[in-house]
Design brief:
- It is built from eight helices and no strands.
- By secondary structure, the protein is mainly α.
- The longest helix has 14 residues.
- The relative contact order is 0.10.
Length: about 150
């Protein structure tokens, strides 16, 4: 049945659980915005109210944002993809390449030292070298520097 403009209720088939459960690989600009209901990710990361005009969004940092990024399957898939790209380089270049791909810059000496120490740490034998690389890549994707544009 074809609908006409002005017929029926706007968003008549959109329910809050449906909006909150949206999984998308698109930028948040292309996600549906229903007044008063945001997808969980947008809500956690301070998306402006859809019913107001907003020239800038507030920037906050909360434990829920960190937990979301640590446990979200999408973030883990992206970290795995980054690790796969980085694995193409020799082991001595992987940390620099991960920084270059994720953050567009080389790591500081201290950051590189911490990364090498993490990758070479034998006391944590629960993780394979590949799993450590994915975990490190996920750490880079969860940084404020990655998530915020200056």
């Amino acid at each position: 049945m074809l609908r006409e403009v002005g017929e029926g209720n706007v968003g008549q088939n959109v329910f809050e659980p449906v909006i909150r459960a949206i999984e998308s690989n698109h930028r948040s600009v292309y996600l549906p915005r229903v007044r008063g209901v945001l997808p969980e990710m947008l809500e956690l990361f301070d998306a402006p109210d859809a019913s107001l005009v907003s020239g800038a969004r507030e920037t906050t940092s909360s434990p829920l944002q960190s937990l979301y990024l640590m446990n979200n399957p999408f973030v883990h898939r992206q970290a795995s993809g980054l690790a796969k790209r980085v694995r193409q380089f020799p082991p001595s270049e992987r940390i620099k390449q991960a920084y270059m791909i994720a953050l567009g810059r080389n790591p500081t000496d201290q950051q590189e030292q911490h990364a090498v120490q993490f990758m070479n740490d034998l006391s944590d034998s629960r993780l394979t070298t590949e799993e450590k690389l994915v975990a490190y890549c996920q750490t880079l994707l969860c940084t404020t520097e990655f998530n915020t544009i200056d």
